[in-house]
Amino acid sequence: MNESRPAALSPLAALGDARRHSGLILALGLLLVVLGTIGIVSSVVFTIASVVFLGWLLAFGGVALIAHAFSARQWSGLFLQLAGGALNLVVGFMMITQPLAGAAALTLLLAVSLVVQGLFRLGVVLTTAVEGRGWLLLSALATLVLGIMIWRQWPSSALWVIGLFVGIDLMLYGWWLVSLALAVRRLPGSRA
Question: Angle CA(91)–CA(93)–CA(81) in degrees, nearest 5?
């Protein structure tokens, strides 16, 4: 059995690759920092854009599932795939045409998820001797507090939460890329 998979880069090869592309990595990082900052400042716009984007992804996925179901009519899962595709298509269409309602639903789900995760982590801290217990406790409390804050301000929090979180994520990931590009440029033997 000869599989033609590309070999994984060794750490040294990956480092060399990062050195060669450090300018591109730096530019991408700075772009993400700028986009993240815009997202934080304009969280309502980012929320709507994120919901509409997710809606389009669901709609396209729904169309693809329906098309696949019709192309594999003899398959025993035909009706399940048709139903799943139709559901994705309808939900996607609803998110595209009613992004504020979609944002409200997603924000409520996010708040519930954060509360449940925070309670679960707190339960682990209180019942288990686990490494890094202090960090897990901090994570549990922060997650729980965030979930409760979002939930208590819902539905008005639906206008800004998703955009703010996407903006923060883009900015932090962008800063990581910037630091990576600068770090590989400082290594011995770097051309950049």
Answer: 50
Nearest 5°: the CA angle 128, 143, 47 is 150
Contacts of 184 (CB under 8 A, 6+ apart): 15, 18, 19, 22, 25, 190, 192
Say if pTM beats, i.e. exceeds, 0.70. Answer: no
* Tokens standing for residue 136: 């897990």
Q: How many CB atoms neighbour CB 66 within 10 A? A: 18
Indicate the burial class of 84 (C-beta count within 10 angstroms; 0-12, 13-18, 19 or more).
middle
> 41 and 170 in contact (C-beta within 8 Å)?
no
- In angstroms, the Cα distances linking 126 to 113, 114, 123, 142 are 20, 18, 5, 16
One digit per residue, the tens of pLDDT, for the chain of length 192 reads 555 555 565 555 556 677 788 888 899 999 999 999 998 999 899 889 989 999 999 999 999 999 888 887 776 778 888 888 999 999 999 999 999 999 999 889 988 988 998 898 889 888 887 777 787 888 889 889 888 988 999 888 888 888 888 888 888 888 888 888 888 888 776 554
| Beta carbons within 10 angstroms of residue 183's beta carbon | 12
